[in-house]
Model the fold of this input.
Amino acid sequence: MSTVVLLALTGLGLAALYFLIASGLSLVFGLAGVLNFAHGLFLSVGAYAAWTVSESWGAIPAILLGVAVAATTGALVELVLIRPLYTRHTEQVLVTVGLSLAGVALLQSVWGADARVFPRPAWASSVVNIAGAQVPADRFLLIGAAVLVLLGLLAFLRFTRYGLVIRAGVENRDMVSALGIDVRNAFTLVFAIGGALAGLAGILAGMYFSSISPGQGASLLIFAFIVVVIGGLGSVTGAFAAAVAVGLLQQFVNYYGTAGAGDVSVVALLAAVLLLRPAGLAGKAAPA
Amino acid sequence: MILKINNLSVRLGGSHILQGVAFDVAETGVTALLGRNGVGKTTTLRAVLGEVPATGEVLFDGRPALGRATHRLVRDGLGYVPEDRCVFAGLTVAENLRLAVRVPSPDFDLVFDLFPELRKRAGQRAGTLSGGQQQMVAIARVLLNPNRLLLVDEPTKGLAPAVVTAVAAVLERIAARVPILLVEQNLAVVRRLATDAVVLEAGRTAWRGRAADLLSDADATRSLLGVGTTAGRH
Amino acid sequence: MKSSSVPTTSPAASPAASSPSPPSVTPPGRLRRLAPLLALLVAVVLPWSTLRLPGLFEGPLNSPGTLQLLAVCLVFAGLALGYDLLFGRAGLLSFGHALYVAAGAYGVDILVSHYGWRLWPTVAVTVLAAAVLAALLGAVALRTSGIAFSMVTLAFAQVGHIVINRDPGGLTGGEEGLPLSSAGLPAMFTGVVNTVNLYWLALAFLTVVVVTVHTIDRAPLGRTLTGLRDDERRIAVLGLSPYRLKLLAFVLAGTLAGLGGATYALVVGGASPHIASSELTLSLIVMAVLGGAGTRWGAVVGGFLYAYLDQRLARLGGSLPGPFGEPLFVLGTLFILAVYFAPGGLASLSSRLEPLRRALRPRPAPDAI
Ligand SMILES: Nc1ncnc2c1ncn2[C@@H]1O[C@H](COP(=O)(O)OP(=O)(O)OP(=O)(O)O)[C@@H](O)[C@H]1O
Ligand SMILES: [Mg+2]
Done:
């Protein structure tokens, strides 16, 4: 029993990371039609920015700075690199591919290729006893952050003007423009939001794994991609459900099966979902 | 003339769809844009709006329109009611309308006067509305803001005869305040609303003049539109 | 997904693309047709040259170091063109090509090093296995299209990467990679003095890919594939199944990748997880786009140059300031610039320079090379 609880909470912690990365990716893809390979870069940028000041500033200001830097990076990437290629989706994907390669190399040249120890606040290292299981507190930090982000995103999408524009734009971009709305401002906004959430994920992942490295973003990104596709492109709640499914499946199968079987089963899940419901769990038809 | 189109040319997916369309839209009344299926009526409207790349000359309210962003043209008073309505299916009726608002005092009075139904259904998802109700939302969206010209694409397509009549009545009321460029296959509706008419054929303007003249000439109607004057949409 | 701005024909492609063959072969035209053969000839005899090109290569051309570097470039030129069969021709943006390269490399490596198989049967079996793998996974992945297809191929390849890294049963050597045991290899591929044979092997691989892909370009299949890329409906109207055609292209590309992977393992003497990573696929995309996706020679040139720069920059790394010491920074930045300023890749640059070249040429004399 205690093993199951520990595995479940660890799986949910992983799911929280996936969700933080995938929700931004999903919104960016759903609205702007851009498959953003540079999303992993936002994650690493946020993590390194926080790491740089965490010694001198303390945890909370460092987190805020990391998130702000990642959000700014996201917005700048949209304004400078993506926007000039408006509607040329293949070229946009290619640019993000180039950016992901060059960006990681840039981080490497500044901070080195090796992993850095990421400091975690003392309370994050404590353990909590739940149903006989000794659960590290950082799991709750991850899960709590993800739930807050989910609620915040849903409230933003439902109750604000920009949220309305984003929901409408995910359905039909052209029609939003035809109502006199400059939908590209919403693009910049979702890139900034996606960057912020990825940056947060990078910092939390740094605490969770106790280390950061330039390539960390890229490896998490692939599972986030899978979550986005399973959840349905453009759907935040779909991404949440898919993240939970993927995180739990991966954790349990990795523990009870052979090493790596969890990762393989996630891909099998992806294949199954795509064959049964090509649009993903939450419906928006995957645009060609 | 609120809209002047000259030598408008559009290529899409390797085919030359519009090859020098030219016509004007008067400051008042309804100008009908006619032609067989697939001749390029929708493409003409989309080109005016800047949704498809086009060459040639388009003057909206005396200013060049080609090359300007769609949302800017719309803000300058170019309202668009697209073919197949394009309401946002996942948003409620109220949200669809709220999204369209861009002036401090939107004309909800007019909208609910024309479509009392929409007030009742404010909380319903637009995707679950009937075709006629969706058309009401699509028209209501543009009426909330002041317009200099409306582009309306096949508003009666796929609607029951009684609903067609209702939509035509609404358009007639609207036309009293703002000019409309109307794409319409139902010639009875055209006869009721249109003062002027333009017919496209093979990517070009094949006929322009008074709508009454076109419709009273059975031969011209048949050769240009492929239908008898009494027929509606096949 | 349409690669809209990629020109389907470049000047180099025009002789084959204009199907009613040009009435008279002008001297420059014949020259252009002979140029690849001449280039091949030069490449074949190059190992006998002791020419030194300081700055470009460290040793003389026939030194093992230079030949090895060139061999890697040739392998990547072939891999890039094989990938371009998918991307540039059929318009399929696969993010999982590395899987088939890795299947070829690890297949040969494992069978030779662990099981002591002889080389040639191993290569045949491995390439066949890569083809079967591509057929199975392609059959699933091609049920989707557009971005979803990219994602599915990426995910499949990721499984390969994970499995290789986990070192199941001690087969793959995990993160360290698996050196190719020279005991099982024919003598001509072992030892530093025999680097030249590896060079020729890489050249042979590239030739096979070029001949295969160019034959497909010229065959009805090639035109159907580009038709598919531009407008799937048009092909469906012709009564052909887009699904089967795409699967055929996918399997062909996978087979060529498997062959390339096998060649790569021989050239570099082993396999490492890097060749199974999504980064390898991304670099194949970069090569194809840099050179000019969908053109006859674009991917070949792009792959060769990319591999050259990658290796040279890595070697110069320490001496360059800041991020310029990172090959991927330079290549990624170049790539982004290319997407903006040379959307057709190097191939389009050469066509843009064509008027200039024509103006500079005094008269159409059959000048010697
Ligand atoms: N994006 C596109 N790519 C390629 N061809 C297109 C595209 N959009 C429209 N077309 C073609 O352009 C032509 C004109 O289309 P358009 O929708 O403007 O016709 P229409 O006159 O509005 O027809 P209908 O009366 O059926 O609404 C059609 O043949 C259509 O197939
Ligand atoms: Mg139409």
